[in-house]
Design brief:
By secondary structure, this protein is α+β, with helices and mostly antiparallel strands. It has two domains: 213 residues, no CATH class; 79 residues, no CATH class. It is built from 13 helices and six strands. It has a six-stranded antiparallel β-sheet. The longest helix has 37 residues. It is elongated.
Amino acid sequence: MRIVERYIADSIFRIFASTVLVFCFLYVLIDLAANLSEIIDRKVPLDILLRYYSAFLPVILVQTSSIACLIATLFTYSQMNGNNEIIALRASGLNFWQLTKPALCFALVISAAVFWLNERYVPTATLSSEDIRNENIILKVDSDRKKKADIKNLTFYGLQNRLYFIDSFDAENYEIQGITILGQDPDQNVSEKIVALNGKWTGLAWKFFQCQITTFEPGHFTRPREVKFYPEKLMDIKETPQDFLSQRLNVTAMNIKQLAAYIQRFAGSGAAKALNNLRVDLHQKIAFPFATFVIVLVGLPLSMMVGRRKALTFTSLGIAVLIGFLFYVANAVGLAFGKGGLFPPVVSAWLAPGVFLLAAGVLIKLKF
């Protein structure tokens, strides 16, 4: 590695490490302040708090690494620009890509690290930290309120060899909306399909409204044998509302392989909305780690255009915050459009990275 590259990489690494430490400290501090009354009320021991934040550390690193890498890159190049080092290096014959090679390589390493953490540690960290929080920190009234919150896109394998796909489950009133149930024979062939507009727990059984029940020829999902429609019907379903509550699907606690296998298992179910949402989440898991590289690539030409020495720190920080904010807004809009059915899942997940890559290309071409 050339001396200049080592100099730039060393500066980026030091600022990145310091920024991540600050972010972790601020996260813990803010979370402690938000839960201070619960911690005092439940007299949570120090070792429990240490276990909780240690378990949650991979999640914090994944959430903060991108913006920390962007800040480190912008600070380094803005400072070099303010000291006229960029001018000197460009006058020596170095082009944009040669100047930014250390930053782009570092961003790729961080992207790979985020991907690895997401796949290897974040799923287990999410579950273990949530268990510690629910058992030791959250007050019972808040825990009960959380359990009664509506569950969206509930998908699970139930009794009587049935697959359940439910758009929304009201955990307080025990009402469900958008119901698709697939019954399977012992050979895992679909033998029955139940579709209903909504349903309600009567206290003893589930009552479905606007319900259609289709039975199929053995081994032939595409050959309906009988179709019946009921304005309302009491169903022979063994699952109670408590069983539904215990089947929450936590996508964050699944890696790409697990989520892909889960989607593949239910691919032929006909529950299009639930499967579409899961596919959006799957592509988002793949696209998310590349956010680091993309936003750094956008920020580099902007940092080199800051030519004044005054207020470089605040200018770099402002640019970093603006880029990060715009990226996450664009990403949230893309995911919302994907889950709303306006964009295919792969397009919705890669919309923000694609737009920002295009913006980076335009900036680089115009200024360099």
